[in-house]
Specification:
The complex is a heterodimer of chains A (about 110) and B (about 120).
Chain A (H helix, E strand, L loop, with lengths): L2 E4 L4 E4 L4 E8 L5 E7 L6 E7 L4 E4 L2 E6 L4 E6 L8 E8 L6 E3 L3 E6 L1
Parallel strand pairs in A: 2-11
Antiparallel strand pairs in A: 1-3, 3-8, 4-5, 4-9, 6-7, 7-8, 9-10, 9-11
Chain B lengths: L3 E4 L2 E4 L5 E7 L5 E8 L3 E10 L2 E4 L6 E3 L9 E3 L8 E8 L10 E2 L3 E5 L1
Parallel strand pairs in B: 2-11
Antiparallel strand pairs in B: 1-3, 3-8, 4-5, 4-9, 5-6, 7-8, 9-10, 9-11
The chains are: A mainly beta (about 110), B mainly beta (about 120).
């Protein structure tokens, strides 16, 4: 069956350190993968998109990698800040025609 | 620019009642979709539309209807509410289907409780 897996355990990290989240997928062949941020009681907000032919993408303190052989994406927040505390969702073209399928999300808590 | 606007933000229904969740976007986006988000389940696609007059089913369409008479509006109808439809509903829109413009913009969500 098709799966998008993110760690269900919250990641607690000290301010200033790098937070690394993992998104693994099974039985998908996505042309791209996206990452979103979701705060409690709010809708997800787009952060980054990485295509299948791209190994790495950066935006400010965010970095995403995409390994289609391992079927995995890594999401890094460098120099993490308490304001980075949120749930981060990965999404990919899971249904065809660019309709997004989402992972369950991984919570990050940055400790001052 | 308001982005994607959903109403209401909260709703309590009795089993068997019907209602419509409203969604409007002011970005002239072609593509709109409805998701539900349940604890431990993540976001699941209910219905989507690739343009006015065109709709199709997603992963979990049963018990829901949609229509797209205009580019801006994409209402979600619950035909006969059931407790299993208690969830947070999100409407999203994106510019089109090509990968470089599939960034999805989400509304604030509607928290629905069916008793």
């Amino acid at each position: 069956s098709q799966k998008i897996e993110q760690n269900s355990e919250a990641l607690n990290i000290q301010e200033g350190k790098t937070a690394t989240l993992t998104c693994n997928y099974t039985n998908y062949s996505p042309a791209y993968l996206q990452w979103y941020r979701q705060d409690p009681g709010r809708g997800p907000v787009f952060l980054l998109l990485i295509r299948e032919n791209e190994k790495e993408k950066r935006k400010e303190r965010l970095k995403v990698t995409f390994d289609t052989t391992l079927k995995q994406s890594l999401f890094h927040i460098t120099a993490s800040q308490p304001a980075d505390s949120a749930t981060y969702l990965c999404a990919l073209d899971g249904y065809g025609n660019n309709r997004l399928a989402f992972g369950k999300g991984n919570q990050v808590v940055v400790i001052p | 620019n308001a982005g994607v606007t959903q109403t209401p933000k909260f709703q309590v229904l009795k089993t068997g009642q019907s209602m419509t969740l409203q969604c409007a976007q002011d970005m002239n986006h072609e593509y709109m979709s409805w998701y539900r988000q349940d604890p431990g389940m993540g976001l699941r696609l209910i219905h989507y539309s690739v343009g006015a007059g065109i709709t199709d089913q997603g992963e979990v369409p049963n018990g829901y209807n949609v229509s797209r008479s205009t580019t801006e509006d994409f209402p979600l109808r619950l035909l006969s509410a059931a407790p299993s439809q208690t969830s947070v509903y999100f409407c999203a829109s994106s510019q089109g289907l090509r990968e470089w413009n599939t960034e999805a913009f989400f509304g604030q969500g509607t928290r629905l409780t069916v008793v």
